[in-house]
Amino acid sequence: MQAAYLRDELQEYLRAVREKVCSVCSERPPGGPPCLPLGKHCGIELHLDKIVEIVRRVHSEQLEPYGETLHREVCTFCPNRETYAECPCPMESLLELAVEAIEAVEAGKRSAQ
After folding, report:
1. DSSP string covering 7-74, please?
2. What is the C-alpha radius of gyration for the chain, rounded to an integer number of angstroms?
3. Using CA atoms, how far apart are residues 108 and 50, in angstroms rounded to an integer?
4. 98 half-sphere exposure, CB direction, 13 A CA radius
5. Which domain holds residue 7?
6. Is-contact 10 34, C-beta < 8 A?
7. What pLDDT, in 10s, does the model give residues 56-87?
8. Confidence label for 3 from pLDDT (cuts 50, 70 and 90)
9. What is the number of structural domains in the chain?
10. Of residues 32, 69, 36, the one with CA closest to residue 50
């Protein structure tokens, strides 16, 4: 039951990220998103749960703390970092938009309570 809830919860974040981030991503293959089925190993699709967790934990007016935490907790372990073709991923250049999208979902959840 909790796994289904988590999937549903992440879908809300995924929709927001796809609208704000994926829509302007220069790495997006034709027909994407989703990009994984099209052969592009997207950092957002691979690590969305961790990215959402980071945004929930890090509260800063600056982007740097989000980037540092992302690099330490996600990029270090990402299987894409071994391949030049897939890394650096667009999360580096689009992190600010991803943070904004996730924070917007969080704000919507708070106002709904």
Report:
1. HHHHHHHHHHHHHHTGGG-TTPPTTPSS-GGGT---HHHHHHHHHHHHHHH---SSSHHHHHHHHHHT
2. 14
3. 20
4. 26
5. 2-112
6. no
7. 999 899 999 999 999 899 888 877 676 655 56
8. very low
9. 1
10. 69
